[in-house]
Design brief:
Structural Genomics Hypothetical 15.5 Kd Protein In mrcA-pckA Intergenic Region, Chain A, 297 residues, 18% helix, 3 domains, eleven-stranded mixed sheet, Alpha-Beta Plaits, single chain, alpha+beta
């Protein structure tokens, strides 16, 4: 493990790039988030941590801190990830944070490649599998796998019409059960309803009726309210070493118009961070349209 004494006040990521030998801020941030950096003997995982001259920084540029993949054999009865829905046409599973959803590189282990191996081992009929949606590596939530080309085309073509629900974990506080005034890319205003599931002195857990692909439209509205999604962005606090986003609900409309509701639980790491928090209630509720209000807490 290499080390150096801080010469100039600034952030940890700046110190690693100017004094620690890291060629880019991206590499320095990745090392910090992977737990490969210590300040005065303590592991620090927040790139924006302020340093003072004289502090000691130790780091290991050769450390591969990625979590080891869970033991898995394709013939196992237990899937590599939690399966929350399955029928003859498609399967839905929960992709954990830290996993790439899918990749064109066959040698790279991904959440989809693991699930594909398992599904193929369960039935000979699972011989035409296709992933439907991707979510970012540091985000968790529902991912779909179609079991034939017909359903792949149907699910992908209609994806934007399927209603989604997401959990958002922020640093800061919002008025309980209200709306966020967001702007579409064309400038049109859209009011996004949310529920305050739980709040501590520092963080708030929100349930939002919006697609996870639109999170970039929600972030500016949260910032105007003094809230930052944890782990999302270079300057965001990162107490969980992941993004504070989870796709927990998806309402699919089948080819015959039948509704198919898929839901997951709140991620365990979210609940652990929110221990001791309460569920704020507004003095006067508005007429909110948060459809997934009955999901598991």
């Amino acid at each position: 493990m290499e080390g150096f004494e801080v010469q100039k006040a600034g952030t940890l990521v700046d110190a690693l790039t100017t004094e620690g030998g890291y060629s880019t801020r991206t590499k320095a941030r990745k090392a910090i988030k992977n737990g490969a950096v210590k300040v005065n003997g303590e592991v620090v995982k927040i790139p924006s941590t302020e340093l003072e001259p004289g502090m000691m920084v130790n780091h290991d540029r050769n450390r591969n801190a990625r979590k080891k993949a869970p033991a898995f054999t394709a013939k196992s009865d237990q899937p590599p990830f939690e399966v929350v829905y399955e029928d003859d046409n498609f399967s839905a599973y929960v992709k954990p944070s830290g996993w790439i959803t899918a990749s064109p590189k066959p040698q790279l282990a991904t959440a989809y490649s693991r699930m594909k191996q398992w599904l193929e081992a369960q039935s000979k009929s699972n011989n035409d599998l296709h992933f439907i949606n991707k979510i970012e590596k540091d985000v968790s939530g529902i991912c779909l796998i179609a079991k034939n080309r017909k359903w792949r085309e149907y699910l992908q073509e209609n994806w934007n019409d399927f209603r989604q629900g997401i959990y958002i974990l922020v640093e800061g506080h919002l008025p309980p059960d209200d709306v966020l005034a967001c702007r579409e890319e064309d400038g049109e205003r859209v009011d996004v309803a949310y529920r305050t599931m739980r709040a501590t002195t520092q963080h708030t857990l929100l349930k939002v009726d919006a697609p996870i692909e639109a999170i970039h439209l929600v972030m500016p509205s949260l910032r105007r309210e003094g809230c930052i999604i944890i782990g999302k962005g270079k300057s965001a606090p990162d107490p969980l070493n992941r993004d504070g986003l989870h796709l927990f609900a998806l309402e699919v409309e089948g080819m015959r118009g039948q509704p198919i509701m898929i839901k997951t639980r709140v991620p365990r790491e979210f609940l652990n961070l929110m221990k001791g928090g309460d569920s704020p209630k507004p003095a006067k509720r508005r007429r909110l349209n948060v459809k997934f209000g009955s999901s598991s807490k």
